[in-house]
Amino acid sequence: MAESEMVRLTREEIDHAALLEEVRTHAAGAAVLFLGTVREMTNGRQTIALDYDAYPEMAIAKMRSLCDEALERFPLTGVRVEHRLGRLELGDVSIAVAVSSPHRAAAFDAGRMLIDRLKEEVPIWKKENWADGSTEWVHPGLDGATSQSGPGEEARP
Amino acid sequence: MAESEMVRLTREEIDHAALLEEVRTHAAGAAVLFLGTVREMTNGRQTIALDYDAYPEMAIAKMRSLCDEALERFPLTGVRVEHRLGRLELGDVSIAVAVSSPHRAAAFDAGRMLIDRLKEEVPIWKKENWADGSTEWVHPGLDGATSQSGPGEEARP
Amino acid sequence: MNVSVQLFARARDLAGAGSVSVELPEGATVGEVRAALAKAYPALQPIAPSLLVAVDADYATDAQRLQPGQVVACFPPVSGG
Amino acid sequence: MNVSVQLFARARDLAGAGSVSVELPEGATVGEVRAALAKAYPALQPIAPSLLVAVDADYATDAQRLQPGQVVACFPPVSGG
Question: Which of B83, B137, B144 is opposite residue D80, by nearest beta carbon?
């Protein structure tokens, strides 16, 4: 059933409380839940919403292999990763990572590793919808070739 | 009101979902929730329950000063710490730490600092109720002078 | 062989399509896919060196040779989380 | 002066009380409280060197002098979390 999948993509609100419950077990002494949330200000610019898009088959495969790697490197008793796609408003949860472990060090380290690596490797992209009406795909390292468009315009280089 | 206190002691179940909500804000891009939960096995011994006791006035004061220190050291947008006291069964949440920050590094680091320092400095103690019927206050560094008692017996040195 | 390439994010916007086709010799490399894309879709030229190519849902190097039937995708650096 | 000392966890169990009184000269130090406790409650002797003393809800050093009216507590190493 979908509820027991280790990794998930969703277009609905992420039920992070349920995700956290799924990693809790009597074998664990620690659980860490990380939430990425839509922040209003980035480098002095105001966001009104983010659009998240993914290459779903590969995103799922990459998220799964990151979880497998975390399970190999750390003595975890549970791991779940869920990413939301589509339009997200300010404060919405874009990503939830939940891990549990007998002891806290592994739970913190695994949670941190999962979100760090996910941001580098998983084919998901966010588009900023700035308060000034422009939009911009976020592609780290591509600043010299930004793609912006005003409201109602087609995207252009 | 009690709900907005930065630090809390409670004898009820910790509403960690509510705690996490309290640190979420549009200024944050990351939130980290840490839960300490009652683990069944410790060094090969089976626990059936833990009893937590505190020196409440000092515990609250110390928890508050740890949060103040975290707010000074890290660019946090929210911090909450709640510890449960009394009898806890397997899997129960004994402690919840929730922090939020514009970026994830500070949220992870502050959460880790808070739980690490709480375990060293805040006057709260746990008593193991082992499956063999014995009980034992946990006092790190006092292993040479353990205090155990069988069921129904008075504690003895 | 005709290779269908899925595009995402800014690459899709620049090409104006989520999936495009390029004609390549049998046994072409991933690097040749990238070059053919930039030639067929000049709007992709400025970001072509940074485009990542995935074959069968895994990152591929430019030297890797394509087999018929493999699924190819091309996209700029990721920004999830 | 008569100093009331709150005890916690194993210290309370060993002394058999959550609060005990010890008689000390005016201006006694925290170290003297610890020594007086161990003398009045021999069961505390084995853990006395590890006992922590708090004055007015803050950790105190053995050299610190007590003022009348201060709240004193004594307990073994903490294990919350």
Answer: B83
